[in-house]
Amino acid sequence: MTAMDAFQDHYPDNVAHCYGCGRLNPHGHQIKTIWDGDETVTVYQPEPFHTSVPGFAYGGLIASLIDCHSTGTAAAAMYRQEGRDMDSLPAFRFVTASLHVDFLKPTPIDAPVEIRGRVQEIKGRKVVVRTEVRSGGVLTARGEVVAVQMPENFGA
Ligand SMILES: CCCCCCCC/C=C\CCCCCCCC(=O)SCCNC(=O)CCNC(=O)[C@H](O)C(C)(C)COP(=O)(O)OP(=O)(O)OC[C@H]1O[C@@H](n2cnc3c(N)ncnc32)[C@H](O)[C@@H]1OP(=O)(O)O
Fold this sequence. Notes:
With 156 residues, the protein is an alpha+beta fold. It has one helix at 59-82, and strands at 33-36, 39-44, 94-103, 113-123, 126-135, 138-149. A six-stranded antiparallel β-sheet has the order 1-2-4-5-6-3, with helices on one face. The model has no long low-confidence stretch (mean pLDDT 95). Ligand 3VV is lined by residues 7, 10-11, 15, 18, 20-21, 67-68, 71-72, 75-76, 79, 86, 91-98, 123-126, 146, 148, 151, 154. It holds the Pfam family 4HBT. Belongs to the THEM4/THEM5 thioesterase family. Its main location: membrane.
C-alpha cells in the first residue's frame, strides 16, 4: 500500500457497507482515514443537510465520524503492531463496544472538520482510541471509543 491509501480502501467487500465508513455505501459518509506519524487523520466536509442549529453540524454526525475514524484506527493499529500489510488475511474487523463524545463547542457546517486519533491501549481483542475534532483549528469535540474485534458469531 502507499502512504496515502485510506484504511477504509482496504476493507474487504463484505464489511465495506458501513454507513460511516463503507466505500460501498452510496448514502454513507465514506470517510477516509490515513496515518500521520503515530496519529490517524480524517478530513470531512459536512453537507448542508447535516445541520443541527443553522450554521452548525448535527452532533450525531460528529459522533459518527469519531466512531468510524476510531474503528478504522483500531484495525490499522493492529496491522501496524503485527507488522502486517493491510490487505493480508485474515482481516482485522472491529466493531464499536463503546462510544463517548464530549461536545465542547458548536462545529461549523461550512468548513471541513479534521479528526485526529491516537491509540490509547491495545489489549487482546480490544483497542481504545482517543480522538479530537477540530474546525478551522478550533477544538470542538473529543471522543473515546472502545473497539473490539468482531467475534465469528457477531449478531447471533
Ligand atoms: C485498516 C485495515 C483494513 C483492513 C480490513 C479491516 C476489516 C474491516 C474493519 C472494519 C469493518 C467496518 C466496521 C465498521 C464499524 C463501524 C462502527 C459501528 O457502527 S459497529 C456497530 C455498533 N456496534 C455493535 O453492534 C457491537 C455490538 N456489541 C457486540 O457485538 C459485543 O458487545 C462486542 C463484540 C463489542 C464485545 O463482546 P465480546 O463478548 O466479543 O467481548 P468481551 O470479551 O466481552 O470484551 C472484550 C473486551 O472489550 C471490553 N468491552 C466490551 N464491551 C465494552 C463496553 N461496552 N465498554 C467498554 N469496554 C467494553 C471488555 O471489557 C474486554 O476488555 P478487557 O479484555 O476486559 O480489557
